[in-house]
Amino acid sequence: MGDNPSFREHGDQIPGVVGGVVGRVNDLAYAEKRERLEELAPEELAEIEAEDEGDDHDLPDLPRAEEYDEVRMRCAPNPNGPWHVGHARMPAVIGTYKERYDGWFCVRFDDTDPETKRPDLEAYDAILEDLEYLGFEPDATFKASDRLDIYYDHARKLIDMGGAYTCSCSGEEFSKLKNNGEACPHREKDVETVLEEFEDMIAGVYDSGEMVLRVKTDIEHKNPALRDWVGFRMIDTPHPREEAEEYRCWPMLDFQSAIDDHVVDVTHIVRGIDLQDSAKRQGFLYDYFGWEYPEVVHWGHVQIDAYDVKMSTSTIAELIDEGRLDGWDDPRAPTLRSLRRRGIRGEAIVDAMVGLGTSTSDVDLAMSSIYANNRDLIDEETDRRFLVRDGAEVPLGGSPPDEANPPLHPNHEDRGVRKIPAGDAVLLEPDDLPQREDRIWLKGLGCFQYTRDTLQYTGEDIDVVREGDVDVVHWVPANESVPVRMRTMDGDVSGQAEPEVAALEPDEMVQFERVGFARIDSVDGEDGTLAYYTHP
RNA sequence: GCUCCGAUAGUGUAGUCCGGCCAAUCAUAUUGCCCUCUCACGGCAAUGACCAGGGUUCGAAUCCCUGUCGGAGCACCA
Question: How large is the angle between the packed helices A253-263 and A276-289, nearest 10 degrees?
């Protein structure tokens, strides 16, 4: 109708005219449709098929990816502790892009604040371990604190170009001027003086707070966040890394990161929305140096629905210090280590994170989607076992079979069966205890009627279960069961498992029937077997 | 206060650039049925969304404006 405006007044008649044709086309078989389309408009067909191929990707294409020889990205964590679940988004997305574009990514520890965000020496390796757990291996690893000379050199060049000045205003003073769009007196210092003072900063002549190096941008820029920002500042506290403990003059993230991204040839920066102004700030630096700023993808904040604990490294660290969490891998902690110990595969987390896409709005990740992914991965290979929580002992009567032999996995009978002796009494979960005179089916063993506080074997046919009259429940022998302590997100539960559970190895996964999946953590502790609950 | 950004079912997401079988995709979730000696897995079905109001147009999830709500930055933190 855009081509033939005269049709417009008859627009409402179009459906009637076109509808019949559309209906006929819809009735054609797929192959026939394809054939007809190929005759009429081969170029349309090609387009449709090209779209279909793109449908496999969960993530949108990276901007202008095809214009670079190699897609190069970086993951730049602050090494202040092991990663929480939210941190997985960065490697998940970067790693997925790396695979798609056959690209490259490095880990660069942005550890340029020895004081406020003081690095934790153990966190460097902890983060690399977390990364490995998620299934990624960086192509290179750097520490910003090893690279101060690179930043100093670039600062010197910038000063030479008149792009930076040393400033001794207090933060408060400068902030006031800046908000009014006014320059401070130090802005017009000559290059020689600035250079000298910057060398003094490097030499550690000044104390913390006495002098900074500001990048000259536009003091009247309409966005106050971009006006003459600090590139370097003095910090009295030595860096925790021995290799870096002599430095006193430290670059700010915006400076350090800007230089590093260019030096290692990063083509695509992928990061959180909190750094959205960073790109603009750093743009001034790139302009001075005549560099081109990488493509940027920002995303919003991620929250996970299942945790009471706030997902922040420092909060988790505090809770551990206070003894309210047992450590970084406490099942109640929203950390990757916790999920790993519970037996959740890194891949399940990565898939969930990739599913979030890269939208800039804030998102809530449902823990259930990680669970669903994980169940998909482990269900087929995980053997079944019985675990009775808070078991109530009930004697057996009526000469039931000595032993039950349920399969290790219902879909894989070839794996064999379990041996569960029945003995004189069994443990049942209190909720499963039947009403008096009601029947119940002890899985693998047979039908029982609850009479006079005893389960009397009635030996009926399994048909009673098929007919829906009798509930099937899990059970363990009262005498020979294995004590199990199971740690969950909601606290510990204790129970008794079937005897063969004693023979499981640490790190093995099990599914406790009608309870859920769990990872065996240790087998010879004081409380017997220690398991971590994975998910239903 | 100044400056940015965003808004599709409970959750996440596709579609938005370039308006047209979009009464809106897929996954997850919830519920029901089937399968089953587990409440797992599998199969089937149901549930459920274009923030609001205006405008442009024959036609708006899509374009424009206003509003509302949400987020971020304005640090000598990362």
Answer: 60
